[in-house]
Amino acid sequence: MTAQLACMTDDLGPEEAMLVELDGADGAPVPVAVARDADGNFHAVSDICSHGAVSLSEGEVEGCLVECWLHGSQFDLRTGQPVQLPAVRPVPVYPVTVDGDKVLVDIDVTVPVS
Ligand code: FES
After folding, report:
1. Could you tell me if the CB of 79 is within 6 A of ligand 1?
2. CB count, 10 Å around CB of 93?
3. Which of 55, 87, 91, 113 has its CB 3.0 to 4.6 Å from that of 51, i.e. a possible disulfide?
4. What's the confidence (pLDDT) of residue 29?
5. Are strands 4-8 and 102-105 parallel, antiparallel or unpaired?
6. Average pLDDT of the segment spanning 11-36
7. Is the pTM here over 0.90, yes or no?
């Protein structure tokens, strides 16, 4: 599969996130949190917090971090790594391409964590 249309650039302002459901390889919807950092760059991570399986897109975006609303774990949108407990496992990060006013996300590959 290739990159899928997730949203339009105007759908998100800086430090905002939204939930989109993209088509998984098996046809099942895959929840993805598309977020814009403080500099206006787009990021896409799994919407499911690795600690308690709640929606990360419902949390706050601060700088390049998204904070889980339930217990306060923060994840780096660039790497998916938790930088604040209680979460200890990363969330998958998906490559984002901005094509004009379209934000495209490829959920078939994950961005390698450095
Ligand atoms: S459910 Fe996200 S930090 Fe606990």
Report:
1. no
2. 22
3. 87
4. 96
5. antiparallel
6. 96
7. yes
